[in-house]
Design goal:
The chain is an alpha/beta fold and about 230 residues long. About 40% of the residues lie in helices and about 25% in strands. The termini are far apart.
Length: about 230
Amino acid sequence: MSDQATERAVRVTAGGVVLEGDLNLPHAARGVVLFAHGSGSSRHSARNRHVARVLNDAGLATLLIDLLTLDEEVIDRETARFRFDIEMLAGRLVDTTDWLTQHRETRNLRVGYFGASTGAAAALIAAAARPDVVRAVVSRGGRPDLAGAALRQVRAPTLLIVGGHDGPVIELNRAALAELACEKQLVIIPRATHLFEEAGALEEVARLARRWFERYLTTTPASSREAHTA
């Protein structure tokens, strides 16, 4: 985490439940990235926290939030009941996004999503539901194909990152890429597996995510530039 960033615990009401999250706010934040965790993961994911620290160092705020309650996590660990309930997860992401647009410290920031595994599908569905709010999406080893028909409704520029040794997921991402009608890119990291555990692989994910979010969350809107030059 950046030395100039402050971290605080937050609680967000979403989908009729209260979700626990960690909000990191760098000084003069230039955007905010909401993390959508994947199958069996949580806001304590070491991989996502690594990416979040890189984004914080770039002046981007991050919100890592548990999309399941503690009771739901217990049930999910035993049954995998909730991790593939993409519509439910997406609904909670939408509610959390609405919270960001109302929270005094983030309401003026552009919003991006970073989704992993099944969380990537939830992020894309939520992005389609909030096209005027969500400005960029990054998927790490995700299952964007599970977003179904919502893929064609996504307007936020979308970056799909997959490991070169994650064969089946590569094909699923290629199929999803073909469905997306927004600005889009698929990057395959050589020799990386699904969890990007190889030396340098996660660092490359973080670098790519940082560049994508810096490009789409921190640029002055065209209307603002025109207003200043008129």
